[in-house]
Sequence to fold (264 residues):
Amino acid sequence: MKNTVFIFFLISINNYAQNSTEIKETFPVFPVCELLPEKFHQDCFNETVDEHIQNNFVYPKQAWDNDLEAMVKVKFDIDINGTIKNITPNSSVIGVSFFDRESLNLAKKLFNDSAKKVIESLPDAIPAKKGNIAIKKTFLVSIKYQIPRKLGFDDVDSPPIFELCSDEENKKLCFIKFIEDHISKNFKYPKRAIKKGEEGNVFIQFDMTSDGLYTNFTTIGENRILEDEAYRIMIKLPSFEPAKYRDKYVTTTYGTTISFKLNQ
Fold:
């Protein structure tokens, strides 16, 4: 089960500052970075590892199903042949207590195995060198396994579902149409705005929580009267089933624009 939520840090454990009297030391180079000037090799190395983790990151299904999260620190070497060796993951399970050590060790193993597999699949590199002699370099990465609690509307697998959309195949399209119909049915041009000749667009954004609540309304418009009307319309939305991401309820944010235009 893939998941794009993670934190990545890269540290060269045995790297050190050099002065003019020390023998020159170069950084390991992945093939994709080889043609770049040497001064960019370290940044390219870091970016390549980062991108590799993103593309190969898999959330352990058993951990996902049980709402387990962890931070895994993985130490590994790039040896004198440029091969990834001595991969040592060490996970810390976050936000949960275990009644027995066996359960804790099982949870840690799920994350350790997943993180190790990601690092194992890194490509071979041109090894680091010191004075033109290949040397081993040791690195440390930290990968965070975190279940998302809030995602954008475009990122959820299933949007919030209104009753009228429950049987529709394209639920996102049904959701958007439902919102448009709701605005149309409940739209009333404020009398004060008509008297003042006020018109314009109001962007309104709000959260639809994993508990089935509407929160965090924000309006952006040219006039407070019109913003208040947009708010009045949207707080009349009916109850819903929360959005889902990989079978878990999540909070999602949705925004739309309401146009107020006077007939000329």
Q: What stands out?
A: The radius of gyration is 27 Å.
